[in-house]
Amino acid sequence: MLFDENVKATALPLSLLKNITDDFTNNNEIGNGGFAVVYKGLLENGVVAVKKLANMSVTDERRFLGEVECLMKAKHKNIVRFLGYCSDSQGQWVEYNGKSVMGDVRQRLLCFEYVPNRSLDKYIKGAHTSLEWGKRYQIIKGVCEGLHFLHKKNIVHSDLKPANILLDNDMTPKITDFGISRCFDGKQTHIITKSIIGSRRYLAPEGFYGKISFKSDIFSLGVTIIEILTLNEDYPDVLRVLKCWEHRLEKSQKDQELEQISVCTKVAQSCLEFYPAKRPSAQDIIDILKQKEGNEWPIETGGSSSTVPYESSHVEDKSKSSSSTGPKAYSFAQNKNMPPRRRHRRIC
Ligand SMILES: Nc1ncnc2c1ncn2[C@@H]1O[C@H](COP(=O)(O)OP(=O)(O)OP(=O)(O)O)[C@@H](O)[C@H]1O
Ligand SMILES: [Mg+2]
């Protein structure tokens, strides 16, 4: 039943999840982040991933409920498939402040399809840096489509980054980790939180003041695309990125692929605009990529990156983003709140 795509995610008993993970044994651990440990669960007819949330304080309970709420609405080929949840509370005699008391022991778990090829960050920073361009392009497109779907459903992910993008057998990307995601109501455009949420490296400038919006996801998408393109944290210059890739591409598809790389670099730059309103929407980005696939975007290699303008309809502020000095993308160096840079390998 768990594997039937038409069945809605459902409540699952703790005993079942214990059973399939061999009581959450370390041997079955497949990943962990700041808030959970993820285990492989073995069923008779397949494998699932079981995410066991740590420390169930009131805040963690809110996180769990928020994650379930978003996941219930998020059914798409580029979003990890949510199979079920478990919310279990049991009275247990426990030691508390030197006394034995009846405590409420909570277990909160989520069950997903198992995505076998690990998370994208491992390919960017690890031994798999040779990931060819064709695959990277498919990943960029898939992530954009997944994010577009979320935004259509009024969900802001808030923690989009390569570590939260899982890769399937055929390298289809699946966005995961909705622990700090928010479902906005129809007309809501942003919220202000008291604390900074998200991962600093991927956080939009306004995120450092607690503002979360669809456009803050777009900023995180921009950083993610840059990492997929360059394996390098610097603000990319289109010509430099193209030059680096030129040596690596197969001759037969070189022109087409260089064009894709050029467009993706410029899309990423526009996502990093300092002002949220100047960033494209996920729909805009998909339109740009689709348009490019129709070969309507001739590549320009003779000038600076600013000589390749965006189609006016794809960015919200046409006059500024296609000006003669090019889009003023946000530079990592401008952000005083950013942690010190780590060194990444370059692509050439
Ligand atoms: N469905 C899955 N299939 C395979 N591996 C998974 C799956 N879900 C999670 N993982 C692994 O577990 C890791 C942590 O998962 P996840 O990001 O959901 O947890 P988290 O504790 O909320 O992380 P964070 O610190 O980013 O909030 C992932 O990076 C991935 O390696
Ligand atoms: Mg995570």
Automatic annotation (TrEMBL):
<feature type="binding site">
    <location>
        <position position="52"/>
    </location>
    <ligand>
        <name>ATP</name>
    </ligand>
</feature>
<feature type="compositionally biased region" description="Low complexity">
    <location>
        <begin position="321"/>
        <end position="331"/>
    </location>
</feature>
<dbReference type="InterPro" id="IPR000719">
    <property type="entry name" value="Prot_kinase_dom"/>
</dbReference>
<dbReference type="Pfam" id="PF00069">
    <property type="entry name" value="Pkinase"/>
</dbReference>
<dbReference type="InterPro" id="IPR011009">
    <property type="entry name" value="Kinase-like_dom_sf"/>
</dbReference>
<feature type="region of interest" description="Disordered">
    <location>
        <begin position="296"/>
        <end position="348"/>
    </location>
</feature>
<protein>
    <recommendedName>
        <fullName>non-specific serine/threonine protein kinase</fullName>
        <ecNumber>2.7.11.1</ecNumber>
    </recommendedName>
</protein>
<dbReference type="GO" id="GO:0004674">
    <property type="term" value="F:protein serine/threonine kinase activity"/>
</dbReference>
<feature type="compositionally biased region" description="Basic residues">
    <location>
        <begin position="339"/>
        <end position="348"/>
    </location>
</feature>
<dbReference type="GO" id="GO:0005524">
    <property type="term" value="F:ATP binding"/>
</dbReference>
<keyword id="KW-0418">Kinase</keyword>
<keyword id="KW-0547">Nucleotide-binding</keyword>
<comment type="similarity">
    <text>Belongs to the protein kinase superfamily.</text>
</comment>
<keyword id="KW-0723">Serine/threonine-protein kinase</keyword>
<dbReference type="InterPro" id="IPR008271">
    <property type="entry name" value="Ser/Thr_kinase_AS"/>
</dbReference>
<dbReference type="InterPro" id="IPR017441">
    <property type="entry name" value="Protein_kinase_ATP_BS"/>
</dbReference>
<keyword id="KW-0067">ATP-binding</keyword>
<feature type="domain" description="Protein kinase">
    <location>
        <begin position="24"/>
        <end position="298"/>
    </location>
</feature>
<keyword id="KW-0808">Transferase</keyword>
